[in-house]
């Protein structure tokens, strides 16, 4: 058996899960929450993670849904990525989140892996990080003091680290419905299809009076957390779309990244070069998609 | 020592109940506890796809799931493809033989199960759809061209067997 030993709990409700996490923390037991396990299981098998207890959310009902309510799309934390990829509601109302869902891992990973699991794991190369920053998504977590809603810029703290406390459970993520007339694009570059991205970008914008407005550019895979590049956004905002403008913005985006990750998959300089190419491509595609 | 957990699940229509260590992966459970050794263990961390099985008809990696997580689930493994009574191969298996979709055969159970899911959802897939469905399975000897050809032939065979009234679905 590859993982180190651990105790296993499968609570029946979110409240039970939170109470259990509290008790484990009080007893000084290192516990980890298990959702779909598509990131946690490799970490257990490689013994990069050696929790003393696993709290499996898989037996909790009613955390598996995609629905529109109050102007946003709400996705239950235990919804599979494959369900998000196949959701017609998501495709119609929030295409950026939809397209990103289909780019995660392989089909077998998306069948078992959950939407909430990806957000909570907070891998720097995860597609959802960029989507969350680009759309200003909200994360709903439940803890001992009840429910709280965390915005994307506060949710992601650092490499594999979120604002959630060890006694809190992510139950839902919320994305605004994409306003009509919004152009969008999501692109990434991977070594092989299904690999974690070396770099990726997400863009949304609108065209008003012939000029780009409400421009959002978010990148992922290059720093500990995905981030918006506001300098590059300002270059595009208020100007007529065009190749020269987008080249200038792409150059600025590439320069705006502070100390990009340098590892065995790609050097920091290469990641900068990827961002330059991706931002230009995303801006072009987003304009093409403006209805 | 951690507490053993009771697991009750269905594999290829047969119900099993065992007590297992929580850290036992589902693929180890299938192979060691149930002696269903058709499902292969390759990388054991979710890269190679050799351990692909179906859970409620959906392809998953059985090395990326704990046996305890599968409590109450209904699974299909490669052993469930051929008919136990007649020993006749599933049309997908037959297609892989005819188109030389395997050489050493180590990756084959995974490819077969991914193909079952694909043809269930998309009975007549394009080459691109085949590639997309199989991008999570690695083959280190035959190469992919003959595997893609095998899936193409399998699609025809599955449709023919359905027309002929014999159940080609897994």
Could you characterize the architecture of this molecule?
The complex is a heterodimer of chains A (about 290) and B (about 170). Chain A is α+β, with helices and mostly antiparallel strands and about 290 residues long. In chain A, about 35% of the residues lie in helices and about 25% in strands. In chain A, helix 11 (about 245-255) runs antiparallel to helix 12. The termini of chain A are far apart. Chain B has two domains: about 5-80, Roll (Ubiquitin-like (UB roll)), CATH 3.10.20.30; about 90-165, Orthogonal Bundle (DNA polymerase, domain 1), CATH 1.10.150. In chain B, strands 2-1-5-3-4 form a five-stranded mixed sheet, sandwiched between helices. In chain B, helix 2 (about 90-100) crosses helix 5 and helix 3 packs across helix 4 (about 125-135). Chain B is globular, with a radius of gyration of 16 Å. The mean pLDDT of chain B is about 95. The interface of A and B includes residues 6 and 44 of A.
Topology:
The complex is a heterodimer of chains A (291) and B (170).
Chain A: E1 7-9, H1 14-26, E2 31-34, H2 40-45, E3 53-56, E4 66-69, E5 72-76, H3 81-86, H4 88-93, H5 95-102, H6 107-112, H7 115-121, H8 127-135, E6 138-143, E7 146-151, H9 152-155, E8 156-158, E9 161-162, E10 169-176, E11 183-189, E12 199-208, E13 211-220, E14 227-228, H10 230-236, H11 243-256, H12 268-289
Parallel strand pairs in A: 1-3, 2-3
Antiparallel strand pairs in A: 4-5, 5-10, 6-7, 6-10, 8-9, 11-12, 12-13, 13-14
Chain B: E1 5-11, E2 14-20, H1 26-33, E3 52-55, E4 58-61, E5 74-76, H2 91-98, H3 108-121, H4 127-134, H5 145-163
Parallel strand pairs in B: 1-5
Antiparallel strand pairs in B: 1-2, 3-4, 3-5
Helix pairs in contact in B: 2-5, 3-4
């Amino acid at each position: 058996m590859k993982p180190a030993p651990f105790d296993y709990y499968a609570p029946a409700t979110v409240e039970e899960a939170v109470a259990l996490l509290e008790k484990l923390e009080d007893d000084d037991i290192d516990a980890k929450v298990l959702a779909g396990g598509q990131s946690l299981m490799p970490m257990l098998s490689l013994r990069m993670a050696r929790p003393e207890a696993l709290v499996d959310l898989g037996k909790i009902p009613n955390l598996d849904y995609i629905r529109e309510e109050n102007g946003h799309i709400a996705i239950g934390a235990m919804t599979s990525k494959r369900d998000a990829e196949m959701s017609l509601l998501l495709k119609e109302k929030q295409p950026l989140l939809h397209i990103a869902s289909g780019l995660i891992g392989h089909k077998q990973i998306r069948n078992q892996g959950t939407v909430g699991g990806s957000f909570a794991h907070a891998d720097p190369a995860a597609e959802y990080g960029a989507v969350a920053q680009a759309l200003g998504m909200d994360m709903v977590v439940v803890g001992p003091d009840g429910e709280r809603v965390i915005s994307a810029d506060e949710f992601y703290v650092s490499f594999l680290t979120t604002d959630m406390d060890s006694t809190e459970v992510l139950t839902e993520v919320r994305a605004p419905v994409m306003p009509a007339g919004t152009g969008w694009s999501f692109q990434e570059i991977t070594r092989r299809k299904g690999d974690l991205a070396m770099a990726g970008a997400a863009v949304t914008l609108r065209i008003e009076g012939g000029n780009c407005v409400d421009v959002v550019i978010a990148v992922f895979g290059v720093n500990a957390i995905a981030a918006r590049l506001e300098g590059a956004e300002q270059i595009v905002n208020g100007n007529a779309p065009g190749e020269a403008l987008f080249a200038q913005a792409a150059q600025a985006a590439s320069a705006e990244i502070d100390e990009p990750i340098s590892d065995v998959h790609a050097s920091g300089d290469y990641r900068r070069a990827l961002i330059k190419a991706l931002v230009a491509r995303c801006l072009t595609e987003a304009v093409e998609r403006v209805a | 020592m951690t507490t053993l957990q009771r697991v009750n699940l269905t594999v290829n229509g047969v119900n099993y109940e065992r007590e297992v260590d929580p850290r036992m992966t589902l693929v180890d459970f299938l192979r060691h506890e149930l002696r269903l050794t058709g499902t292969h263990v390759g990388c054991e961390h979710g890269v190679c796809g050799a351990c692909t099985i179906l859970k409620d008809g959906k392809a998953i990696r059985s090395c990326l799931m704990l046996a305890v997580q599968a409590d109450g689930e209904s699974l299909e493994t490669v052993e469930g493809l051929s008919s136990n009574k007649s020993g006749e191969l599933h049309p997908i298996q037959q297609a892989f033989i005819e188109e030389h979709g395997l050489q050493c055969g180590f990756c084959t159970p995974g490819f077969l199960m991914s193909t079952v899911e694909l043809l269930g959802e998309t009975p007549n897939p394009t080459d691109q759809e085949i590639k997309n469905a199989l991008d999570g399975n690695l083959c280190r000897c035959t190469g992919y061209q003959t595997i893609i050809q095998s899936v193409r032939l399998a699609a025809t065979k599955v449709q023919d067997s359905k027309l002929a009234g014999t159940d080609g679905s897994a």
